[in-house]
Design goal:
Blueprint lengths: L2 H21 L21 E2 L4 E2 L2 E2 L5 E5 L12 H4 L7 E2 L11 E2 L11 E5 L2 E2 L19 E7 L13 E7 L9 E9 L3 E12 L2 E12 L8 E13 L4 E16 L5 H6 L9 E17 L4 E18 L21 E22 L2 E23 L16 E19 L4 E20 L9 E19 L2 E12 L3 H4 L6 E2 L7 E12 L5 E23 L2 E27 L3 E23 L2 E4 L11 E11 L2 E10 L2 E2 L16 E2 L2 E13 L2 E8 L26 E9 L1
Parallel strand pairs: 7-10, 24-27
Antiparallel strand pairs: 1-4, 2-3, 4-9, 5-6, 7-8, 9-10, 11-12, 11-36, 12-13, 13-14, 14-15, 15-16, 16-17, 17-18, 18-19, 19-20, 20-21, 21-22, 22-23, 23-25, 25-26, 26-27, 27-28, 28-29, 28-30, 30-31, 31-34, 32-33, 34-35, 35-36
Amino acid sequence: MNIKKLLSIGLFQCVVAYSYAQNDSIKTLDLKEFQLRDFRGLAPVSPLPNTHRNFLIGGTKTESIQISQLPANLADKTGRQLFAKIPGGFVYDMDGSGNQINFSVRGLDGHRSWEFNVRQNGVMINTDIYGYPASHYSMPIEAVEKIELTRGTGALQYGQQFGGMLNYILKEPDSTKRFSFENLSSVGSFGLLSTFNAIGGKVGKLTYYAYYQKRVSEGYRRNSNSKSDAQHVGLTYQFNDKLKLRGELSRSTYLYRIPGPLNDGMFAEDPKQASRSRNYYSPEIWIPALVLDYRLSARTSLSWTVSGVFGQRSSVTFDGFANKPDLIDPATGVYAHRNVDIDNYHTRTSEGRLIHAYQLGALKSNFSANFRYFNNSMDRRQRGQGTTGSDYDISISGEFQRDMNLKSESFAIALENQFYLSEKLSITPGLRVEMGSSKMTGRIDYIQDAKVPKTIAYDFAALGINANYQLDRNSRVYAGFSQANRPVIFQDIIPGNPLMLISDNLKDSFGYNAEVGWENSSIPGLKYNITLFQTSIGNRLGNIYVEQEGQTYIQKTNIGNSLTNGIEFYLDYQLWKGSNWTLNFYTSTSLMDAKYTSGEIAGEDGNQDISGNRIEAVPKWLSRNGLTGYFKGLQVLLQHQFVGETYADVLNTETPPESGAVGRVPSYHVWDLNTSYQVSSNFIVRAGINNLLNESYFTKRPQMYPGPGIWPSDGRSFVVSVGFKL
């Protein structure tokens, strides 16, 4: 470590210690001895502090992933590399590489990360929390400095979701320059071309940062080409040392040609083949935000955010299982008409966060209050008769068979207080109260109009408590419990076809997260974390058979309860260290026992009991292990990922039907080799081989978008990136 870094770290600790003393009215300033360790390999993932961005997170399991220190494939957004050191982090491959990340933890659903409260720079980017909580916005990973993850027991401050919070923090400009420029360009297999360009700097009290990214790829499978672009502009004005205002505008869009699902025979024959050539999907999302940060006093800080999510997602598809070919009709000489679906989003959110430090006798305490109001309107138009062509065309003939609107409004308040019972022990109880409702109006051609409008109330209170015991400066024990909620959403209400019934009495899924863990980095060259957790979800939603007037229908209802018990283990160990090189080993492993404890669901022979069945798409074992070597500016990472077998449906169907829509998802092994070489402080080269052994595998058989069946993951590919800064 050079002298400049040494002085910087020492000065930083002095400033932190002085601020801490000022905030707690301590008259004397005692700087304890500190040690500096040049311990590479541990920095890319670290826990967040007890108070962070006006949130209290002491006693919860948190991780901060430093993207710039990972030799990962950034252009393809390879999730298993970005979240390599997050035990239990499941990545679901869905929209082709490079478009979106579908991520979950602890046996939850990875679809567009919708089990999380997803944020960018602390601003919510979930499309519609009550209507469709997926995150369709997709920023380039080249623009991300770090990813912050707070597990489920910290959910009270962020929302009712089971997953917790996922926050993508964008890069900051070089404040020592009036103007700086960064470029990172990539080329790779399957026609990959990507360029990321950013400018930034500081002029007086104004700091600015902006980027433009464009990416094209032919895709691993036939008929799977995609193109994307994204833009962002951020301005921050520092009025004084107490007040600053930040304004941001972000946009992302991509057009993905969907190659269609495969059945098991097609996958075994050639995983690159496509069952469709005329299917497309495209979201375009805008995220405007204004953030005011105001330090009211040495003890009190306030942050207020006004933001929105605006845009649409559109698809044009010829629907059907993998064994239903999309062929030209011999009688007409043309293809059949395609189906067009269009969603429009208008989400407006205002969120305030206040944190106040105070004394209780000789002990310090922290109080946090979070206020959130949102007003959403979501239009969903589905089953429109599209063209018989082959290009991306969302024009229709006639009207949509389903033309719906969902208006939602909610106010929530979360209160937490961190009590320090001693210098080492803190306990943080919390309460979240949410009052909201959604009203659905519109038309479904095959449902009587009187049965369509639905008003759903989302009124609930949730409790939580977390405890943190600091064994020493680098070791702690934590435990927590918090209630969670998964509200009934738009697609739960709207029947997909005339053989499905709309339900009048759907209930929100409600349950809890609980965890206890030990985190330790006290031993030089060793860092580890072990966590035991339990996630309980009641009133899970599914389909059952019902009889009405001699006709059998499928109806969405609350099918039962589930329980997931698990262990998450992370270890990073420095095997060897030389004067200019180090070699580190890490493992990020989870064991999950995820089962239904009660319930019944529609099956071939009527409604079937599902007690004891495994939760769909949850692997029992998920393990990533790697060797990282450092030599001066060179970093080499060899990583192996193992994901155990899963089931596609609640009934745990073993043998897949001809369609491939359900059945077992086999376990798989994937090896990656990635390198980065920091030629100088302003020049970097990255190179990698993804899926080194060219494993043929798939991560899930989805039951909804992009269609039931097998969606093969990418085979072996090569990527080279060159970046420079001015």
